[in-house]
Amino acid sequence: MKQLSEHYIDGARRSIEGGEVVRVLDAATEAPRVDVRLGGAADADAAVRAATKAAHAWQTLSPGARAQYLLALADALESRASELAEDISREVGMPLKLSRRIQVDAPIAAWRATAALADDFAFVRQVAHSRITMAPVGVVAAITPWNYPLHQITGKVAPALLAGCTVVLKPSELAPSATQHLIAACEAAQLPAGVLNIVSGGAALGAALVSHPDVRMVSFTGSTAVGRKVAATAAGDMKRVSMELGGKSAAVVLPGADLQKAVKATVASCFLNSGQTCSATTRLIVAREAYPECRAWLEQAVAAMTLGDPAGANTRIGPLLSATQRERVHAHLAEAERAGFDRIAGGPDAPVPAHGFFVAPTVYGNVPADSRLANEEVFGPVLAVQCYDTVEEAIALANGTPYGLAATVWAADDATGARVADALRAGQVDVNGARFNPAAPFGGFGLSGMGREGGVFGLEEFVEPRAVQLP
Ligand code: NAD
C-alpha cells in the first residue's frame, strides 16, 4: 500500500509530521490502496508564503513564457497518462477506457489549449484614452473535489498560472494519486519554485487557506454546502471567489424529438462515472403521452449499461468512490421506494458485485417536482423521470430546482431546440446531442455557483482589469 505523506511547497517535497491519516480504498475491490497524511494550518501558511514570494517573478514573465511552462507540464503529464488513468479509475471507479479519455487525455488537452490562449488573450487593451492592463489577481487558493481530480485541478490551475497568478492547490484527499503525478510533472517541467504549491489536507487545511489574509482569490469546486461556507469566509476579506458547485441537470424532450436517441444520451450522461459528475443529466422531462414509450426505451438503454470491474473491456459503469458515497445514494433509493415512485430499472435490491462500492443504475418514473429526488444532487447512478403536459410546464420543471449547471434540449429541429435552450437557467445547454465544447464557459446559475471555467472565460476569472488614463 502506498503512503502519501508530503506537500510540494516552494519547489520541494516536504514530509508531513503527525496529523490525521485517511485511508483510500480501491473502489472496485475495497482493498486498501493509499494512506494519505493530512497537513494543517501551518502548512497552508507555508504554502501561501511560498506563493507570495514567487509572485513577482512569475507575473513579470511574458504570457508566452508562462505558456511554455504549461506546455511542459502537459508533456510531463502525458508521459504518465497510463498510470494516471489507472490510478483515477481505481480510486474514483470510472471504467479504465473512459478514465483515460475523459480523466486524463481531456485535461492534458486543456493544459495545451490554455497555453494557446497566451497568443489570443488581450492582456493589454486600449479603450479611448485608457490603457487597460489585465493584472493577475494575486495568490490563488484552488480547492478541488475527487470526482474528476485532474480535470478539476486543470480548470483552475492552468488559467491561473497563465494569468500570472501563483497558486496553492488543495486537491481532494479522497482521490490523491493524480496529485502525485502532478507534483512529478511540476518537477519535470522545472516550474519555478513557489509558482504552484500543492498541499495535502482536508477541510481544516482548506479552511485555513480560505481565511489566509494573503490569498486574494479562492477558486473552489465541490459541494454547494461547502461552497457556501467558503464564499462566506472569503467575503470577509473581499477575496474574489469562483464557485463550481453541484447540479440537478435536466434533459427536456420536446414533442417531435427523437425519443430513443434522447433516452440513450440521457442514460449515458446520467450514469457516466457512476453518476459522480456535477453536470450529469439526472432528470429526464418527457411529455406525459410519451411516458410509456420512454419507459420501454429506458429499460432497454439501462440493460445495455454493463456494470462491473472498471478494468473490464466492456464495462460502462464501475463502482462509486467509497462506502460513504454508496450509503448516501442508498438513502435516496430507500426514500424513493418508500414514496412508491415507478421503478423502471435498478433499485436498492438489484444485483451488484459482492465487493466494491457498486450501486446498480437506477431509474424512477413519475417523480414529483417537489420530491427530494427531483431536487437534490444524488451523486450516484440514479435518474428521475418527470412528465409535462405543455412545453411551458417542461421549461418550468427544468428550471424548477435551486441548481442551474447544465441542461439538454431534444427537439424536432435545432432552431426549436435553441429557442427552448434560451429559456433555461443553466450555464451549459446542449441541443440535440451536440458535443461538449471545452472552449465554452462552464459554470452554473443559482446554487450551482458563480464564475466560469473553460477557454477565455476561465482565464478572465484570474485577472483584475487596471485602467490607466493617459492625457
Ligand atoms: P466537497 O465539497 O466535500 O469537497 C470539495 C473540496 O473542499 C475538497 O478538497 C475538500 O477537502 C474541501 N473542503 C471541505 N470542507 C472545506 C472547508 N470547510 N473549507 C475549505 N475546503 C473544504 O465536495 P466533494 O465531495 O469532493 O465533490 C463532490 C461535489 O463537487 C459534488 O457536489 C459535485 O457536484 C461538485 N462538483 C462540481 C463541479 C462543477 O464544476 N460545478 C465539478 C465537480 C464536482
From TrEMBL:
Aldehyde dehydrogenase domain segment(s): 20-468
Catalysed reaction, written as an equation: an aldehyde + NAD(+) + H2O = a carboxylate + NADH + 2 H(+)
GO molecular function, one term: aldehyde dehydrogenase (NAD+) activity
Active site, per annotation: E244
Signal sequence segment: none
Keyword field: Oxidoreductase
Matching InterPro entries: Ald_DH/histidinol_DH (IPR016161), Ald_DH_C (IPR016163), Ald_DH_CS_CYS (IPR016160), Ald_DH_CS_GLU (IPR029510), Ald_DH_N (IPR016162), Aldehyde_DH_dom (IPR015590)
EC number: 1.2.1.3
Protein family (similarity comment): Belongs to the aldehyde dehydrogenase family.
Entry protein name: aldehyde dehydrogenase (NAD(+))
